[in-house]
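Our working data are protein records whose layout never changes between entries. An example says more than a description, so a record of this kind follows.
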Amino acid sequence: MEYPFKYPILYGELAMQGKTKKELAEALRITIAGLRYKQSKETEGDFRGEEMRAAAVYLNRPVEYLFAAEENCLYLPHRECTGLPAASSA
């Protein structure tokens, strides 16, 4: 499945936590238009390091997970990708 966003996991995690794009933009100290621009595959814009770190803090998830470039992370979440502890087999 093709997503129109550079970082679909970012928006997916936002939705799973019941937070809005407007709230994310405020946490990153950018406008909603700026958020759309940086997330659009149609533009050359991208997030700066401090914005990525702010998103990770806001969503309490690792930067590597939220801004993963690997499509495998969308379909096969694992500990290295999500930053979450592995399920125990006890």
